[in-house]
Amino acid sequence: MRRRELLPWFGGAVLATWPVIARAEQASKVSRIGYLGFSTAAGDADRVEALRAGLRALGYIEGKNLTIEFRRAVTVEQLQEAAAELVRVNVDIIFAPSSTETERAKQATSTIPIVFSTNADPAGLGHVASL
Length: 131
Description:
Blueprint: H1 3-27, E1 31-37, H2 45-57, E2 66-72, H3 76-88, E3 93-96, H4 99-108, E4 114-116
Helix pairs in contact: 3-4
């Protein structure tokens, strides 16, 4: 093959693989979840393991492409400070297991998305605009 015939083929091959290269670079970003718990580590161990299992099923592996920042409290005042700390460390998302944690997270930030697993009345408490 002549060089002039080879160059367009090579250029086309590079362009064809560019989306794959771009996705690989994006995949290397480590997502940071802030876990806001109104409990001890032992008290919510089952919930944390369920969260980890669900994230693994979606391809998020701790230490590879995911970091979970745990902040726990045993009083409401400590919970508010724990929520503020997650905002300060600039996590990508805050996971709040229940409406108690969701309320404190909502008070601490209006820019970081908050995800909750259980909530007494999310619309009634103002944690979501509607169901």
